[in-house]
Amino acid sequence: MPLVHMSLLHTHVMRLLFVCVGNSCRSQMAEGIARSLGHVAASAGTHPSSEVSPNAIKVLESKGISTKGLHPKLIDDIDWQSFDMVISMGCGVSCPMIRIDQDWGLDDPVGQPLEVFEACANVIEEQINNLSHH
To answer: Model pTM?
Structure first.
């Protein structure tokens, strides 16, 4: 059996872009989680915050996921067309010049306790795994 067929048994690597408004919580966690699962991932916001939420960083680190290089980015600075899928975190992002392939409808955990961030991260991980199996 040629080696090329063996690769079909493994998870398909996708280029994923996660977008929201502040790019400080959900989309940052999604970027980190997707990378840890072997995908190429980025995140951006329409009005980026000044920093990544400390609770988002804590949740990723508790899962053993690197937070190196994570910082809020403006969607205008990202080449969104180079991604296989653009996913809105669910903040009613209205970007007329950008396609949204899926809207996950996740509540923004900003300002909430760590447990809310952990629950959000678990849903994000499940959603990313679901993408991989289609």
So the answer is: 0.88
Q: List the domain range (segments joined by +) for residue 106.
A: 14-132
Tokens of 6: 């063996």
Read off the CATH number of the domain in which 70 is found: 3.40.50.2300
DSSP 55: H
Residue percentage of the chain with pLDDT more than 90? 75
Catalytic site positions: 20, 91, 95
- The beta strand positions in the chain, using DSSP E, are 15-20, 40-45, 85-88, 102-103
Question: Letter for the amino acid at 117?
Answer: F
- Which residues lie across from 87 on neighbouring strands? 18, 102
Q: Structural domain tally of the chain?
A: 1
Q: 105 and 122 in contact (C-beta within 8 Å)?
A: no
